[in-house]
Structure formats: C-alpha cells, structure tokens
Amino acid sequence: MKKFLFFGALVALLLGTAACSSDMEPAMGGEVPVNFAINLGDDIDSRTISDGTGANTLKFAVFENGAEITALAQEVPVADKKATVTTKLVKGHTYTFVFWAQNSACTAYNTTNMSAIKVDYAANCNDETRDAFYKMDSFTVTEAFEKTEVLTRPFAQINFLADDAVGVVGVNAYKSKVTVTGVPTTLNTLDGTVTGSTDVTFALATIPNETLAGYESYKYVAMNYILAATDKEMKNEVVLTVNDGTQDVNTVTVANCPVQRNYRTNIFGSLFTLEGKFNIEIDPIYNTPDIVPEMLPAPWDGSVEDPVVDGNNVTINNAAQLAGLARDVNSGNTYSGKTVTLTADLNLDNKPWIPIGNLVAYPGQSFNGTFDGGNHTIYNLKCDGDYVGTHEVSGLFGSTVGPIRNVTVKGAEITSNHYAAVIVAYFSTNKPLVIENCHAINCNVTSTPQQINGSWDDGDKVGGIIGYFASSTSYTIKNCTVDNCNISAFRDCGGIFGAGTWTTDISGNRVTNSTIIANQEGYAPYSKDFNVGAICGRKTGGTNLGDNNTYENVIVKGIANDGTVTEY
C-alpha cells in the first residue's frame, strides 16, 4: 500500500518594473498624450517554463463608464517581456485600462470582448503557449503622463515534478494527462473576478524535457494553467496520469488541491515509480504565502490484517491493520500492557467501521492498551452503532479503558442510538481515563432515541471527543479540539463530551465553528432535560470546568417536544 507524505508550498511571482522618461506636452482640444510602459517581469527562472517570453503580443483596451472605446484599442508587439502603448485621452475623464499579453499563436483566449475574456480548455497538457499576463488600472486623467504597468498571470499554474526520473528508460518520451474539476471559464477584466465552472482534461502530451531551476533533481512531468480567483481555493481535484507512450503507468490524485491566482502549485514526488512519496516545496517565482494541499492516502479496501506485534510494542501501518486491532479487541484480546502506535495517515473511505471495543453487554470488550496516533489523521470514518445490539456504541473506539493520545479524525459520520463520539464512545472502569491531544474536524455525530418496551429511551451521551465516562479513579481530557462539527442527540450532548463525572484534569480543550443540538421534537410524550453545552452536556458530579476550556462560534440549542427552541 502506498504511503504518502505531503508538504505544501507555493511561491511568488516576482515581476519587475520598467520606467521610461520623456517630456510629454498636452495636445490640443483638451486631450493629453499618455504613455504606458508594459513589463512582464524578470523571473529568476530562465528556463522555458514560466519565463514569460512566450507572451509576444499585447492587447490594450480603454473603457469609460463600463463601455469600451473601441477606437483606442491597440495590439502591439512584446519584446523581452516589455512593450509600450501610447494614446491620447481627454483631461478630467476617468478611464479603465485593460492590458492582456499572450502568445500570438495561442487560440485558447477569446478577447473579442476585452471586458470578459473567455478561456477554451480544449488543449493538450504541457502547453507553454497558454501562458498569459493581465492588468487592470483605473484613474482620472489630469495631465500628460508616463506610467509603468506590471502585468501578472490571471492563472494558477499546477505542476507535477518527479524525483525518480533517473534510470527510467525513454523517460523523455513519456506522456502526461491532467484533469481538474471546477475550473472557471471567464475573467472579468474590469473587476478581476472569475465566473463559470467546468471540468477540464488536458490531453496526453509529451512531458517537458526540463528540470526545475533550483531543484535540478526534479523533472517536470506536467504543467498547466487554469483561471483562478485572487483568494485561495481548496475545491479542485487534480488527477495526473503518467503514460510511458503505450500504456498508463501511474495515476496520482490530489483532492481539494489549493489554487490561487498568480501562484504556482508544485507537487513533488516519485511519479514514474510506485513509491508514492510526495512533497510540496517552495518555488521562488510566484507569490507568497505558502499553501498546503491536502492529499488523501490510498483508500481502505475493507480488508483486515494483523497488527505488527513486537513484544509490548504494536504498530499500525495501514487501515487493514487498524481493522485488525478492532477485530482482536472485540474478540477478547484487549492488548493489555501494550502500546499501539499509528505510523501513517489512513483513509477509511467511508466503508462500514466496527469500533475498537464494544458494549454488546456491560461491561463489554474494551481496549486496555495505550493508543498513540503519532499525530496522524484518520479520514472518512463511517460508523453506525446498529451492529452492536442494545447498548450501542459508535466511534473510532467503542469502549476503552486505556489512554488514547495524538490522533485526528477528519470527515467522520457517526450515528447511534446511544453512546456516540468521534474518538471514544464509552469509558467505564476503575482505571484512570486519559484522552489527550485528540481532534475531530468536519465530523457529524448523531444519536437518536430508540423504543424499548414501547417507551422512548437513550439517544444520549454524545460528544465530539468522548460520549460517556464514569466510575474512574481519575480523569484527564486535555488539549483536545473539535472544529466544524455537527453534534446532535436527544439529550446529554456536548462539544467535547456528552456526560461524565470528574474530579481532576479536564483542561485546554476547545470547540470552534460547530453546532450542538439536543432535539426532543417528535418523541412525545417522552421528555427530559436537554443537558446540552458547548464543552459538556451533563456533568453528574465533580468540580466545575475551568476557564481554559474554551469555545468560539458555537451554536448550542435545545429543541423541545413541542418544537420550542432554546438557545444557550
């Protein structure tokens, strides 16, 4: 199974300025001569890709009150990334000037309407002739002037670069294809916004025969330009296909790839072989600050493998081994006295997850070792408590009596009729409770009541980190966070935990940008206290929460049986 490591960085387009000087005198009839010196900059990368020399034609348009003055439109040559535009304008009038520079051989850009330039993405991969530059400027003309205009790219450039080209036979004959989702199609040159959305495929084409300046061990595999907004966006999925000239040899997917106008997204890694190590590095050409794309690990195929056991040390290297840990614990091997360490990010791919530890009957089968997530992230956890019978538990861990530390769960869907949480559903023992540095991001946790002997019950003890804990010798829930989560239950629901008793350290926890709702509507005539809160739902004893458990931008509501809403 591939193991991916990603570091993201994108960098700055350094465009210089050029000035010219000459004496300019006002013309007759209230008109004054104006002179624009156009500069596409002096990039420090002198190679073909992104050196700007392909833009050899400048198109110039003048607008007043939103309408183009077509008589002033010009098209002038660009040489050495510089051009000059001279025209005459009326004093006291306010104009908007649009400058667009591109390769004259490129047919991708429809500039018939210079206020809305449209992009045709029917193109091959690695086409450097698509490089283009743009600037809008607007001001009132008061006298003759000379002005330098520095143009920048209206695009994000997406590059794949490989560190494993050496030794690959015929590598320069390899081809690449790139698909990108949700790409804008039109640039409004008057306000700089982009509109439209289309999925783009840059067709197979021979890879560039170049390496990246400053990183000579990395060979370009693919390079493409897409229109992008001025703000960073994380919505695009980018897929690279590498072809050896006869067949596809590798496919790499970047989910939620960051793109931004005048930024270069560089994806570094082993692309010709199957090693699958990726690093996003800083490029000294484009703008700062750095942007980090998030690329998911390979999806879990639903298989189960034995964890790697070495005495009291156990390692989990993939999702199948994590499922093996759950299988073992639920079968009676509690891993008592062992430390289980996660060594990689995992993608559970929304396949049905059976929690580690169960509660089919009290006290259930509990994980009794120490779990250290190694500060890794588990993506796309989907758990439905229905599989465990009367006492349902749902989460990464169903029942634990051992410490849980240093793990992030992102994009989880947790449902149950009783105990539910992203990290741990249930804890009950005379051992110390320890949950530290655990995080839930972009998760949904829901527990609904069930009918038992004709009456509604349960649908309670629900939290972002832990659902319920009791009967412990001491309690530590520390430095945990919940962000952008929706937590809903009949009662006893909180951002960090749903219900519990404590006397010791519950501190440094934080809930942000989340909604927490105790909803009893529709379950007549059954009704109980909501017990809902941003940090905790129901506290059954112990000391009060300290001030260092904080929350921000959290909506907390209770919805009564009759539909009445109480906001906290």
Account of the 3D structure:
By secondary structure, the protein is mostly beta strands. Helices cover 2% and strands 48% of the residues. The protein is built from one helix and 51 strands. The strands form nine sheets. The protein has a 17-stranded mixed β-sheet that branches. Strands 2, 3, 4, 6 and 10 form a five-stranded antiparallel β-sheet that branches. A hairpin with a 5-residue loop joins strand 14 (186-188) and strand 15. The longest helix has 12 residues, at 319-330.
Q: What global shape is seen?
A: elongated
Roughly how much helix do the residues carry, as a percent range? under 10%
Largest sheet: 17 strands, mixed
Strand percentage lies at over 45%
Number of helix segments? 1
> In terms of per-residue confidence, which ranges show pLDDT below 50 for 5 or more consecutive residues?
1-29, 43-47, 275-284
Number of strands: 51
The chain-level structural class is mainly beta
Rg, alpha carbons: 30 Å
- Termini gap: 47 Å
Average pLDDT figure: 84
How do you describe this structure in short?
This protein has 568 residues and is mainly beta.
Write the layout of secondary structure elements.
Elements (H helix, E strand, L loop, with lengths): L30 E9 L17 E8 L2 E2 L5 E4 L4 E9 L3 E9 L6 E2 L5 E4 L3 E2 L7 E9 L4 E6 L4 E8 L12 E9 L2 E3 L5 E2 L2 E9 L4 E2 L2 E13 L5 E11 L4 E12 L4 E6 L8 E2 L28 E3 L2 E4 L2 H12 L8 E4 L3 E2 L22 E10 L2 E3 L8 E2 L2 E3 L4 E7 L2 E4 L2 E3 L2 E5 L4 E9 L2 E4 L2 E3 L2 E3 L4 E2 L2 E5 L4 E4 L2 E3 L2 E4 L3 E2 L2 E6 L2 E3 L2 E10 L12 E2 L2 E7 L7 E10 L5 E3 L1
Parallel strand pairs: 1-11, 9-16, 12-21, 24-25, 25-27, 26-27, 27-31, 28-32, 29-33, 30-34, 31-35, 32-36, 33-39, 34-40, 35-41, 35-42, 36-43, 39-44, 40-45, 41-46, 42-47, 43-47, 44-48, 45-49, 47-50
Antiparallel strand pairs: 1-5, 2-3, 2-4, 2-6, 6-10, 7-8, 8-14, 12-18, 13-16, 13-19, 14-15, 17-18, 19-20, 21-22, 23-24, 37-38, 50-51
